[in-house]
Amino acid sequence: QAQLVESGGGLVQAGDSLRLSCAAPGRSFSNKAMAWFRQAPGKEREAVATINHSGEATAYTDSVKGRFTISRDNAKNTVYLQMNMLKPEDTAVYYCAAHTTEWGPITLELRGYVYWGQGTQVTVSS
Description:
With 126 residues, the chain is mainly beta. It has no helices and 11 strands. The strands form 2 sheets. Strands 2, 4, 5, 6, 9, 10 and 11 form a 7-stranded mixed β-sheet that branches. The chain has a 4-stranded antiparallel β-sheet with strand order 1-3-8-7, with no helix packed on it. The N and C termini lie far apart (35 Å).
């Protein structure tokens, strides 16, 4: 059972923007690092962006630097991914994840992220 719920995906054209949201109904992840991953057909799941518990530290995979921004609102128990200048290669299912470690550092490594959502589809047409 998914403990995180993603929303905001859709079909857009290259150059457009989308904002993904990740909510955690009934549970707080405010003391954990959070991340967005994505998985395209036939490819492995890859980390896109991560943010620490306070929101003060972030990291991005090289392909999205300067275009994507991760943020969080702990009062709303929600994490966001603002995606600008979208490209067709950004097409994937996007997943939100929470790390198992409390008050831990940010990491783009898949290992350690144990709480997952069911994903939201992002499709970018050329």
